[in-house]
Automatic annotation (TrEMBL), chain A:
This is Copper resistance protein B. Residues 23-32 have a biased composition (Basic and acidic residues). Residues 18-54, 69-92 are annotated as: Disordered. Keywords: Signal. Residues 1-20 form the signal peptide.
Length: 326, 597
């Protein structure tokens, strides 16, 4: 129950623009279809004079009487806003084809697509690479994300994990996702996750990632494991500039489980909460060391299980790390 | 009649050398494209070519200015490329040889010519292949101040541009001295890297954001901007953080001088040949009389400052008193300035004024109408013949009582869009109440205490033919700041090359541009001049090839489509065009071959 409520928030944020998009798709009015049909018919013929006999598919308002008007009062709304006159559809599809040849122009147009909107690019970001110093054990953690693609579709990889300093890796996972823009600010992400530690386990992933109102970067995902367990994770972070290079970043991470997973010490419900605060200095945009503090608390059944194992269910950690990207 | 001084004196040469020495400390890695090539340094400042036959050669070079150094593309060995000086009524044949390893092109910005020589690869010609020479050949049908630049990839950013001046067929007695002031930027970063950083890095080049310690916007307004996921300091995408601002290829420390004798009337042909920067132009203490905009004469208007959008040109006449005066080209976002001295004493440098405070966007820039009456609200209705007045009064009234919290919901009301606008991830806002802001002096200049040029001040010096438009169309400028997507009507150029904007030959159309973004866009139509609908009266509407559409606002022009062919139509901010903010305009039918000139 709780799981559903918490998850709904980021999912809805992404879903709302997506819904708006679908409805607006109907906006492609049928008049346009007629226009598009027209140039193809005309481009078949070389005879430019033919257009005079061609039946006009629409009728322009008669503006011949207009010059009698006082032009200074003229408003945009007074003019017809219909499609252009039929002669505007004359000739070949592309004017330069007749002068330089279709082949040469087609090649140049293909280059144009790549250089006027279809650019592909990517980045690799080490969001957190940090030492975590607390009571008892000192650990370290990585949180890396990269993507490559265009504006709408991207290939996304994520990896995070943690271990004891000088000791074993405790958690390690990699995700490979397809990201698809579902609104101005959110991507839907779907793919697979592979846990390497503490044991090999695979999951299907469905999530959303993007920028929520008030500039919170949000990353939320549902995981369905190969054993049928459903878990979820939601992260949110905010960059508060103190100066142009000094940035305070509140960050919170929640973990949830739809059922008990005893072998991993996880109870049902909200299992873990990690609020933290990091202060970073952007020596360059791409390189920013930081210090911080984080509170980590296991909750509910998960906390009970931890205490049974003799572990602390909650505690503070001091952080020192680097945020870097390429 | 006029003399010319490009300011390539010994002073600038010394600074050039100092600049080169300073690079070692900056620790910049040698980019891949430059490895293994021995490149010569491009000369700083343009040479000059003229006559009926002109040869231009495009080469890879190094360039350095003010401690920044990197790869450049130079034409005839200089950055900017040579001044092409022509005369109205002549014919010209220009051979352009490409010595690069990639395609190149030259577009003659603002020139009336047959479309196949307009120089836009993929639209009007195939481009110039490596090793190839392409010949442009056309008659010169106009006079005035223009420029030329590459339309291939992002070459324009790294030096592939130059000034173009056409002397009028009749003698011009308005001035004694004639200078070109070509504004541009230089960056050591590769332009493809800049394009990538704009996509992947949030506000990568912006070091003037509001912070806990900077900016005086009240907390509730900051919350409102945050709620909309918009940044009120998003003035320029690429800034002085990586750009050195240039006048005729010279950085602010180079000591570029324009000499004059007291009492002389000095014509300054100011060309914004930058890739991404709007400049505020002023000569503190010296009033400027604007005599031409985008090459076309306007009725003289005296101002103390004006903003020039990317790709615009303004000609001004100044009569400075004896002494040294700073010619200041301050970047609109105030992240840096270009500088030269206008001096009656060789070697005397003027003291530049300090950079002013960074600019913060307002309600009006969100398309919310005017809250403070600084722009739209102060409009005289009488002066705005072509505007839609119905929306205007509501602006201030409706906004006054608006709850900030409800605002972010209304910032993307897609029902306000015409049906042919594609709604999707590429559109992050819809201006709720966009108004014509032809009387707006430009971001950051609405509060200065002196006279600033506005589009409403421009009146064509020669009467235009008296003709009514017979059709109107509306084009929306759309974008998503977060994803760095830019488009017209929600469609990137790559999606619409087979579906151009169509005009019938000789058709006169009123085009309303609606800016659904919070950035100012300089929109340029190739091969034509359009008339700004600025209230000057239909016969005196100023002719322009580029119009700034203010954030969240509209701008309207009348165009008579009398140049047949396919023409590029785009935002002249280079990275906006690269991201897709471009369209083809086609004017048909084409003349039968036997009628063609």
């Amino acid at each position: 129950m709780r799981l559903r409520t918490v998850l709904a928030a980021p999912l809805l944020l992404g879903a709302a623009p997506a819904a708006a998009q679908d409805h607006s798709g109907h906006g492609d009015h049928s008049a346009n279809d007629q226009e598009e049909a027209q140039p193809q018919a005309d481009s078949e013929t070389e005879d430019h004079s033919r257009h005079q006999q061609a039946p006009a598919p629409f009728k322009l308002a008669d503006m011949t009487g207009a010059p009698a008007m006082d032009h200074s009062m003229h408003q945009v709304g007074d003019l017809p806003s219909g499609p252009p006159p039929p002669e505007a559809f004359e000739g070949p599809q592309h004017a330069a084809d007749e002068i330089y040849g279709e082949a040469a122009m087609a090649e140049a147009r293909a280059t144009n697509h790549a250089t006027h909107g279809d650019m592909k690019t990517g980045t690799l970001m080490v969001e957190r690479l940090e030492a975590r110093l607390g009571e008892g054990e000192d650990g370290w953690l990585w949180d890396v994300q990269g993507w490559y693609g265009g504006d709408i579709d991207k290939f996304v990889v994520k990896s995070e994990g943690e271990g004891e300093i000088g000791g074993d890796l405790e958690d390690a996972e990699v995700q490979a996702l397809w990201g698809h823009a579902i609104g101005p600010f959110f991507d839907l992400q779907a793919g697979v996750r592979l846990d390497l530690e503490p044991e090999t386990r695979s999951h299907l992933v469905l999530g959303v990632q993007g920028l929520a109102p008030y500039m919170w970067h949000v990353d939320g995902a549902l995981f369905l494991s190969d054993r049928g367990d459903i878990t979820a994770r939601i992260e949110g972070e905010y960059d508060q500039k103190i100066t142009q290079r000094l940035i305070l970043q509140p960050r919170v991470e929640l973990e949830l489980a739809a059922q008990e997973i005893p072998e991993r010490g996880i109870g049902a419900g909200l299992t873990k909460i990690e609020p933290g605060l990091r202060l970073r200095c952007e020596i360059a945009r791409e390189f920013a060391p930081y210090v911080g503090v984080e509170y980590e608390a296991k909750l509910g059944e998960t906390a009970d299980l931890a205490r049974e194992e003799g572990e602390d269910a909650a505690g503070f950690k001091l952080l020192a790390g680097i945020r870097a990207w390429f | 009649m006029f003399s010319k001084q490009m300011g390539l004196g010994p002073v600038s040469r010394r600074n050039f050398m100092l600049g080169t020495a300073g690079v070692a400390a900056s620790g910049l890695a040698m980019p891949a494209w430059a490895r293994g090539e021995s490149l010569t340094h491009a000369a700083q400042g343009p040479g000059e070519v003229s006559g009926e036959r002109i040869a231009l050669t495009v080469d890879n070079h190094h360039f350095g200015v003010g401690g920044r150094k990197g790869h450049a593309i130079a034409v005839n060995g200089t950055v900017p490329g040579p001044l092409v000086r022509l005369r109205e009524g002549q014919n010209v044949r220009i051979d352009v040889t490409n010595n690069l390893a990639e395609d190149t092109s030259i577009h003659w910005h603002g020139l009336l010519l047959p479309f196949q020589f307009d120089g836009v690869p993929g639209v009007s010609f195939p481009g110039i292949k490596p090793g190839e020479t392409f010949t442009y050949e056309f008659p010169i049908r106009q006079s005035g101040t223009y420029w030329w630049h590459s339309h291939s990839g992002l070459q324009e950013q790294i030096g592939h541009y130059g000034p173009l001046v056409i002397e009028s067929a009749e003698p011009d007695p308005r001035y004694d001295r004639d200078y070109v002031v070509l504004l541009s930027e230089f960056t050591p970063r590769h332009p493809h890297e800049i394009a990538r950083l704009l996509k992947v890095g949030e506000h990568y080049f912006n070091y003037q954001m509001q912070s806990a310690t900077e900016g005086d916007m009240p907390a509730d307004e900051r919350l409102m901007w945050g709620g909309m996921r918009m940044n009120p300091r998003d003035i320029s995408d690429v800034t002085g953080a990586t750009y050195t601002f240039l006048l005729n290829g010279h950085g602010p420390m180079d000591g570029l001088e324009y000499l004059f004798t007291p009492g002389e009337r000095v014509r300054l042909r100011i060309i914004n040949g930058s890739a991404m920067t709007f400049f505020n132009i002023r000569i503190p203490g010296v009033p400027m009389t604007v005599i031409a905009a985008d090459g076309m004469d306007v009725s003289p208007v005296e101002v103390d400052e004006f903003q020039i959008g990317t790709a615009e040109t303004y000609d001004v006449i100044v009569t400075p008193p004896a002494g040294s005066h700073a010619l200041v080209a301050e970047a609109m976002d105030r992240s840096g300035m270009g500088l030269a001295s206008l001096t009656s004493h060789r070697g005397h440098r003027a003291t530049p004024p300090p950079l002013r405070e960074p600019v913060t966007l307002t309600m009006a820039d969100m398309g919310m109408g005017s809250m403070d009456g600084a722009s739209g609200g102060a409009m005289s209705h009488d002066a705005h013949g072509g505007m839609d007045h119905s929306g205007m009064n509501h602006g201030g009234d409706a906004m006054a009582g608006m709850d900030h919290r409800s605002m972010d919901h209304s910032m993307r009301d897609t029902s306000k869009l015409p049906p042919d606008v594609k709604v999707g991830p590429g559109l992050d806002m819809v201006s709720p109440m966009p108004m014509d802001r032809m009387d707006y002096p430009g971001l950051g200049l609405d509060t200065v205490p002196h006279r600033v040029l506005r589009y409403t001040d421009l009146k064509a010096a020669r009467m235009n033919p008296h003709r009514m438009p017979t059709r109107s169309m509306e084009i929306h400028l759309t974008g998503n700041m977060e994803r760095y997507m830019w488009s017209f009507d929600g469609r990137k150029f790559s999606a619409v090359t087979d579906d151009p904007i169509r005009f019938a030959y000789d058709e006169r159309v009123r085009v309303k541009l609606v800016n659904d973004t919070m950035m100012a866009h300089p929109i340029h139509l190739h091969g034509h001049f359009f008339e700004l609908v600025n209230g000057a009266g239909m016969m005196n509407q100023p002719l322009k090839h580029t119009v700034i559409v203010q954030p969240g606002s509209t701008a309207t022009f009348d165009v008579t489509a009398n140049e047949p062919g396919d023409w590029a139509f785009h935002c002249h901010l280079l990275y906006h065009m690269h991201a897709g903010m471009m369209q083809t305009v086609t004017v048909r039918p084409f003349p039968a071959p036997e009628d063609a000139a």
